[in-house]
TrEMBL record:
This is Uncharacterized protein. Keywords: Cell cycle, DNA replication, Nucleus. Belongs to the CDC45 family. One of its GO terms (biological process) is mitotic DNA replication preinitiation complex assembly. GO terms for cellular component: DNA replication preinitiation complex. The keyword Cell cycle applies. GO terms for molecular function: chromatin binding; DNA replication origin binding; single-stranded DNA binding. It comes from Anguilla anguilla (European freshwater eel). It is found in: Nucleus.
Length: 97
């Protein structure tokens, strides 16, 4: 995945925290969509909203870790897709006649 490039911007505050806008987006989305704990959607929304504050940088890092877990799981799920594809001899393309 080294060839994937996106345009974004970065933010620095202090010497420790250097984040890209995409990091914040993925972290907040992961907190919003989190299903690891038995919590309501409104609890997840509040946590995602809290991670946008500089005073809750630990919560944002938790969201980024959740986003990483989600991205790591995609190749494992995609590996099973070949089992459900139609047989190569069947043409299922949508062409007008």
């Amino acid at each position: 995945m080294r060839d994937v490039r996106i345009q974004t911007f970065g933010v620095h505050f202090g010497f420790k925290n250097k984040l890209l806008a995409s990091d914040v987006v993925h972290g907040a989305a992961a907190l919003l969509e989190n299903v690891e704990k038995d919590e309501s959607g409104s609890d997840n929304f509040i946590k995602a909203l809290d991670c946008l504050s500089r005073s809750n940088i630990d919560r944002l890092h938790r969201g980024i870790d959740l986003a990483k877990k989600k991205l790591i799981g995609y190749p494992a799920d995609c590996g099973q897709l070949h089992l459900y594809q139609p047989h190569p001899s069947r043409d299922l393309s949508c062409t007008a006649t």
